[in-house]
Design a protein that fits this description.
mainly alpha; three-stranded antiparallel sheet; about 550 residues; 19 helices
Length: about 550
């Protein structure tokens, strides 16, 4: 298969906002409330868990850099058949949406209805799914969706949208659909939307406002967080607007997108680690929370992806600084199994680590591997002026991916929770704890994204095996009876898990797409040296030639 190429909406209710960002308060210390008898049971449990950990360690070492043997990977395995199973899951999801909520922005598969976010549909599910259908060869479904976009989608509405979410999902989805199909209608829709979103950048500093009115083009500060924009939101629209600039020839899109990083860099943050809020008027960071989870995550992702997309070295330099900062200031290891995780700093760069990690952080496994290899297979990359830092980054990516897989494998359902707290107490036998309030699963893609990247770069079948186990768990616990499709879950610690009655658009746009590509034997489909996936899994081409270039440079004095 080949192609011919010519994540807080203000008006959403609390449950809908949960899918985009869901920060949680800290839990109690692991020691709190543990009785003497409980401690004794845990000490006894360590003896049994040691055997379990030894087995895990063997499997882990086996998967780190070794191929599974033919016997262990099973000659009976048919990856094309497993890929077909993923396509069937998409078709089942799409059939339910089409029957019960066609054209709507949200889909409730249990109650079988849908609704729009604003006065008219934004195309939240349809536009987000276009390129997945194209990649999966679902021509009939793609044609139906294309016709809906052409005839029904109109962004001229007096309604405020979240700048970031609309850029990555809708603008990204339209641009990717154009890239894969060559259909100019998608580019026309993308150009119209891009122009409407560009008003968000009209702040005093150039940092985009959190929201923008699609009719007036006026940006509006966040309704919360004292008007600050989240750093991830402000710094995760660049792939989209740079590609739009490349296609339309409008330099202002490129300029306003790169201005964000010039302002961020002018703050001269230590170790390349940025707080998660930034004031759009002042261009200065607000607060001291640092994390790779919600509101911080894709800032780091777009550093390396901008470099891959455009070859601009300033972003590679910023990325390398940030990765060294992550390794120096945020890495920690669980007790007793020594799972590698990326912690949080809630009181600034010199504050204590919090052992909390969002599932969102699981993108970092793929990011680190991609950053080390630039999308080349590992065996080839190691022959291209390979450095010890690149090797360390790649191995760290593998470690994080393994930890994220364990976040699935160690729950009763085999599905990961939204947030885990890793254990640092030697008297506790479990490597991480899931609070009930954090135990939901929103069909997120970050772990399977990293597995896909690592599979492409290493061809180690362990990543496919892990991905298949995750897919089987989705099939077992999130697939609904009848024709409604799949749903999110409220608690992955319960069997059977209570259901949430919501199907996220990124289930179609990202999770199933990455699983489908993970099981694809055709290396010519979207090679990582030629495409870059935006944070919503919409592929854009690497721009080997473009008339635009970086219009700013870093200050020599970084103090």
């Amino acid at each position: 298969m080949s192609f011919s190429v010519p994540r807080n909406v203000p008006s959403l209710d609390k449950r809908a906002q949960d899918a985009l960002y869901k920060d949680k308060p800290f839990g109690h210390n692991y020691r709190q409330g543990v009785s003497s008898a409980g401690k004794q049971r845990r000490r006894t449990g360590l003896i049994l868990s040691a055997l379990f950990i030894a087995v895990l360690y063997f499997v882990y070492q086996f998967g780190r850099g070794h191929k599974l043997s033919t016997k262990e990977s099973s000659e009976a395995v048919s990856w094309p058949e497993r890929q077909d199973a993923v396509r069937d899951a998409f078709k089942r999801s799409w059939t339910g949406y089409k029957k019960y909520a066609w054209g709507m922005d949200e889909y409730k598969p249990i109650s079988k209805w849908g609704r729009n976010m604003g006065p008219k549909p934004l195309g939240w599910i349809i536009v987000d799914s276009l390129d997945t259908m194209k990649i999966m060869g679902l021509d009939h479904e793609f044609k139906e969706a294309r016709n809906w976009v052409a005839k029904e989608l109109d962004y001229d509405m007096d309604y405020e949208v979240n700048t970031f979410e609309t850029s990555i999902r809708m603008l990204g989805g339209l641009l990717s659909a154009y890239y894969l199909s060559g259909d100019k209608m998608f580019l026309e829709k993308a150009t119209d939307l891009g122009e409407r979103l560009s008003g968000a950048f009209d702040s005093k500093s150039g940092i985009p406002y959190a929201s923008v009115n699609l009719h007036t083009g006026r940006g509006k500060p966040s309704h919360t967080d004292q008007g600050a924009s989240s750093t991830a939101e402000a710094a995760t629209v660049q792939l989209e607007f740079k590609y739009l600039a490349h296609l339309t020839g409008k330099e202002e899109y490129w300029t306003m997108a790169e201005r964000v990083f010039e302002v961020i860099d002018s703050n001269k943050v230590p170790h390349g680690l940025v707080p998660i809020y930034i004031n759009p008027e002042l261009g200065r960071f607000q607060g001291s929370i640092i994390r790779l989870g919600s509101r911080g995550d894709s800032y780091y992702e777009y550093l390396i992806k901008q470099y891959i997309q455009t070859g601009e070295p300033v972003y590679k330099e910023m990325y390398d600084e940030a990765v060294e900062g992550i390794k120096d200031r945020l890495l920690d290891y669980s007790v007793p199994g020594k799972l590698t995780y990326i912690a949080e700093l809630n009181h600034g760069i010199n504050g204590p680590l919090s052992p909390k990690m969002d599932h969102l952080v699981c993108f970092a496994g793929g990011m680190l591997a991609l950053g080390a290899t630039r999308g080349h297979e590992l065996s080839k990359a190691r022959k291209m002026q390979w450095t010890t830092s690149q090797e360390a980054d790649f191995q760290l990516g593998r470690e994080i991916a393994r930890t994220c897989y364990e976040m699935y494998a160690r729950t009763p359902t085999g599905l990961a929770a939204e947030i885990v707290f890793f254990n640092t107490d030697k008297d506790v036998s479990e490597d991480f704890r899931i609070k009930t309030f954090d135990a939901h699963n929103l069909q997120r893609p970050e772990t399977v994204e990293s597995l896909f990247v690592l599979w492409r770069l290493t061809h180690n079948p362990i990543y496919r095996e892990w991905g298949w186990k995750i897919f089987e768990a989705f099939e077992k616990y999130t697939k609904l009876e009848g024709d409604a499709g799949y749903t999110s879950l409220d608690n992955v610690k319960e069997v059977p898990p209570p259901k949430r009655d919501n199907m996220e658009s990124f289930w179609l746009s990202e999770t199933l797409k990455y699983l489908y590509l993970l099981f694809d034997d055709d290396e010519d489909v979207l090679p990582l040296t030629e495409v870059v996936f935006n944070t919503e899994a919409h592929p854009f081409p690497v721009l080997k030639e473009t008339k635009f270039s970086t219009g700013w440079s870093r200050a020599n004095d970084r103090s």
